[in-house]
Amino acid sequence: MTIDILVLEQSDTLIYFRWTTTEAVCRVKRGTQVVYTGTQNYFKDDGLPVGQLYTYTIERLDAAGNWIDKIKFQTGTENRKVDKGNRLAEIVLTTIVSKGRISLAWGKIDGISTFDIYRNGQFIESVEKNQYTDDKVLSDQQYTYRIRGKRPVSRAGKRVNEKKFSLHKMFGALQQNSSQENAAMEDFWLTQIIAPLHSLLSDQPNTTVQPVWHFRYNTFLPETLLKNPNLLSPFHYFKGDNRSFSPDSLEYRTHVNFTVSFNESEPPLSWDKNVGPTIGYNWRKKFSKADVASAEKIDLTKTDESHQKISIALTHCVGNPLTTSPNIDYNLSADFYRDGTYTILGAHDQSPNHEVYLKYSEDRQWTEIHQSESEGLSYMAGPTANKYWRLSNFC
């Protein structure tokens, strides 16, 4: 009988799961460590750290003494102390893999009844449950799944009332490049990158012991010249960065690089930041003034460090040095693990363009992990809804 996960529950310090009854000897591994061997079909892992990611493997012993029917899954303990402003930081994403199949399950998000599922950039289907199973999986291919949900801001909790929701609608009506719905809808993206199944289900241990991640976050304005939505400002236009998404462009509003390293010969965290010049024009589109905003409120801190994990938090608030206007705001947190896995969470306004890239160890090319196109400068203002995203991997 093929093993399958029947029940999976977690709290902030406990992970419990039950699998198909086989009446045979089964063993459970947490990472590479065997934590249970016997005939029962359940396991309770207690006393675990809060907000930690774990990989479990379940195998059955056959009559010839071979371990077969391998099933592997990644899950974690809850973290109830995180910033309540980003629901994606609170939920647990579970990925279960076995021969020819990948299953995803995620925590409930109030106000979202339907999720859109994408595989390798292609829309697959919409689901009403907080789970999805793909049984058309090749063993030698990497898969990237994106789970998208949207909800009205008025349903996001007590922090937003109906009056403010009306402001969202009114604000959206002023935009030329978007709709009322965009201004009043919070957008959530869950992304999971899954290594080829033949690698995940292999008996060969992961030999990665000193991973290094290089991370880049840029904000930019794609236009050549754009109109100031503040009609009272003496600067009627601003110079844009005149580009599309590109990790190596030197044109940006703001730029942050950091490196997380488990190599003992390097510091665990190093980083740099920069702000591009702001150039204002008058109503005749003639140069008026230029200045550079302060980078003082771009801050990166190491929030946790152990032999197995390094955690960081990045906060970003940069204003316009020429005139009163909303700030470019975003926040990001991430956990990087020695075994090569990571979880990255972010939230930002719907303007300007945001681009986030990751490069692993000695890779030469940046990998795009998040891109968001601007809905217009006015979407940096407070009344509009945010975009929330989360990326993790299973390797």
Protein architecture, described:
There is one protein chain. The chain is 5% helix and 48% strand. Mean pLDDT is 87; it is low at 155-178. With 395 residues, the protein is mainly beta. Among the domains are: 1-81, Immunoglobulin-like (Sandwich); 199-233 and 241-275 and 295-382, no CATH class. It is built from three helices and 28 strands. The longest helix is centred in the middle third of the chain and has 12 residues, at 162-173. The strands form five sheets. A nine-stranded mixed sheet has the order 11-10-13-14-28-25-24-23-22. A seven-stranded antiparallel sheet has the order 4-3-6-7-8-9-12, with no helix packed on it. Strands 19-18-15-26-27 form a five-stranded antiparallel sheet, with no helix packed on it.
Please tag this protein with its features.
elongated; mainly beta; single chain; 28 strands; 48% strand; seven-stranded antiparallel sheet; nine-stranded mixed sheet; Immunoglobulin-like; 395 residues
Structural class: mainly beta
Report Rg: 23 Å
Instruction: Give the spatial strand order of the biggest sheet.
Output: 11-10-13-14-28-25-24-23-22
The chain-level mean pLDDT equals 87
- So what's the oligomer here? single chain
Stretches where pLDDT falls below 50 for ≥5 residues? Answer: 155-178
| Ends apart, CA distance between termini | 26 Å
What is the helix content? under 10%
Please describe the biggest sheet, giving its number of strands, its sense, and whether it closes into a barrel.
9 strands, mixed
Continuous helix count: 3
- Would you report the number of β strands? 28
Global geometry: elongated
**Beta-strand percentage range:** over 45%
